[in-house]
Design brief:
Oligomer: single chain
Number of domains: 1
Strand content: under 5%
Radius of gyration: 15 Å
Shape: globular
Helix content: 55-70%
Order of helices and strands: HHHHHH
Structural class: mainly alpha
Number of strands: 0
Largest sheet: none
Length: 160
């Protein structure tokens, strides 16, 4: 079982900075999402899911059938949060975040808050420090999203 209390996610600048075909993209995401296999006995992302997310404008369309860092970040967030939220809710959450933050900033903050939430659930239950430069409705929303996912992971890990 994954040790969620010490998990660390790649930050936006550390994501592969190459254009990937969909199969390469899925392989990369599968490696990144390996700790979350506990969430589902099915693949968290498939080729048809990626195509649907592009059609729904949840993910930026590929350029010449190649996906980049931005799409990788978008798909990572979708794959994680679709475990606790509907696609419609994720779409709305993305819209709210994109109004206030660039993809890199939003992704890095999301991953930082997810690390904190997992540490909170799996380690000590102590109050979480706020990592945003200021607390806003958007930062509270991200905190709530990550806590929902971390709580689900904790419950599922206890049921195994």
């Amino acid at each position: 079982m994954t040790d969620f209390k010490d998990i660390h996610f790649m930050r936006y600048d550390d994501l592969p900075d190459v254009s990937l075909y969909v199969d390469q993209l899925l392989d990369t995401l599968e490696d990144m999402l390996k700790p979350f296999e506990i969430l589902s006995d099915k693949k968290l992302l498939t080729k048809s899911m990626v195509n649907n997310y592009v059609k729904l404008n949840l993910v930026s369309p590929p350029e010449k059938k190649r996906y980049g860092k931005k799409q990788l970040a978008q798909l990572m967030a979708i794959a994680l949060f679709k475990q606790v939220f509907s696609i419609e809710e994720i779409e709305l959450l993305f819209k709210i975040q994109s109004l206030h933050y660039e993809t890199a900033i939003a992704y890095d903050y999301l991953m930082q808050e997810l690390e904190n939430a997992l540490s909170f659930e799996f380690l000590d239950g102590k109050a979480l420090p706020l990592h945003a430069s200021r607390e806003t409705e958007q930062t509270k929303l991200v905190r709530a999203m990550t806590l929902a996912l971390a709580s689900k992971l904790f419950v599922q890990s206890q049921l195994e």
